[in-house]
């Protein structure tokens, strides 16, 4: 079915369980994905803005080389996350009225997952930077590890575990 338009596939596929065509399913998936992206985009853009002004703060010069490295990795992760979470909007513009909703939804799904991975990395770095400034290196390590474990459990492990269950509840 690769290369076929969604209009053609609609005539062939009907999902009686949801009472929708493939195009309707793709529209629903795209709408749902956009709602999720709106939440993530706002957060990552605020985070990126915050990170970009840090070097211009007086205490930034007090960071040691390790903390500066964590900062740079955090900024890179946050910028990368911003790029990936906004990419579906650009892709939508480029594919507008091309009947490529299937490609748009599939690619945007991948962009969202990659963007969330980088956002999780950035949040872990931010926790480490803040705790380093307040409590020192030990606090930074503890905050980074706790943040990483919390994100991994709530964003990935728990949803993947639910996905493997046979029952929807």
From TrEMBL:
Keywords: Membrane, Transmembrane, Transmembrane helix. Residues 1-22 are annotated as: Disordered. The chain crosses the membrane at residues 69-90, 111-131, 137-157. It holds the Pfam family DUF6328. InterPro entries: DUF6328. This is Sodium:proton antiporter. It comes from Mycolicibacterium litorale.
């Amino acid at each position: 079915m690769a290369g076929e338009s969604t209009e053609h596939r609609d005539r062939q596929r009907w999902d009686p369980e949801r009472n929708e065509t493939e195009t309707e399913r793709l529209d629903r998936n795209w709408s749902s994905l956009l709602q999720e992206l709106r939440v993530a985009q706002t957060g990552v853009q605020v985070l990126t803005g915050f990170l970009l002004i840090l070097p211009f703060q007086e205490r930034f010069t007090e960071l040691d080389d390790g903390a500066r490295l964590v900062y740079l990795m955090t900024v890179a992760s946050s910028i990368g996350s911003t790029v990936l979470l906004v990419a579906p909007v650009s892709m939508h513009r480029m594919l507008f009225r091309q009947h490529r909703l299937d490609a748009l939804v599939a690619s945007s799904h991948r962009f969202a997952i990659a963007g969330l991975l980088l956002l999780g990395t950035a949040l872990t770095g931010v926790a480490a930077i803040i705790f380093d400034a307040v409590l020192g290196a030990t606090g930074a390590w503890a905050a980074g590890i706790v943040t990483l474990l919390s994100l991994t459990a709530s964003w990935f492990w728990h949803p993947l575990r639910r996905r493997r269950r046979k029952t929807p509840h």
